[in-house]
Design the sequence.
């Protein structure tokens, strides 16, 4: 069964960078689009980015566009979220998730919807503060 584990969270100053990793347990990971999501204290979980199964197409929330980059290394069954120019409002728990149901396909476009993703990691905390 597919399992996902996130790494790389921590405390960073505003303007700094962090790279999050999402490591999978099986190579079935390579068949699925991977989303990154975040949940700030007292707020709903929101979509941050999506990368398609091949790694050729990505999609981002407007709030992170131009600052965050997602990519994947299918040979290492790992996805990444590179976060640059971090702001205090980026503070949240960050989760990766796989979209395995065939009805949603393997591409990324439009809204990054939580409901489409069915395998989730446990999350990693990111705090942006001086």
Sequence:
């Amino acid at each position: 069964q597919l399992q996902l584990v996130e790494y790389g969270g921590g405390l960073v100053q505003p303007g700094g960078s962090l790279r999050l990793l999402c490591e999978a347990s099986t190579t079935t990971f390579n068949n699925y689009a991977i989303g990154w999501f975040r949940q700030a204290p007292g707020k709903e979980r929101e979509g941050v980015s999506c990368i398609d199964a091949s790694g050729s197409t990505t999609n981002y929330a407007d709030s992170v566009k131009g600052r965050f980059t997602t990519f994947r290394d299918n040979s290492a069954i790992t996805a990444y979220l590179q976060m640059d120019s971090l702001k205090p409002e980026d503070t949240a728990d960050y989760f990766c998730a796989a979209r395995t149901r065939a009805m949603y396909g393997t591409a990324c476009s439009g809204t990054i919807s939580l409901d489409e993703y069915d395998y989730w990691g446990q999350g990693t905390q990111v705090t942006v503060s001086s």
Remarks:
- The radius of gyration is 14 Å.
- The CA atoms of residues 7 and 18 lie 10 Å apart.
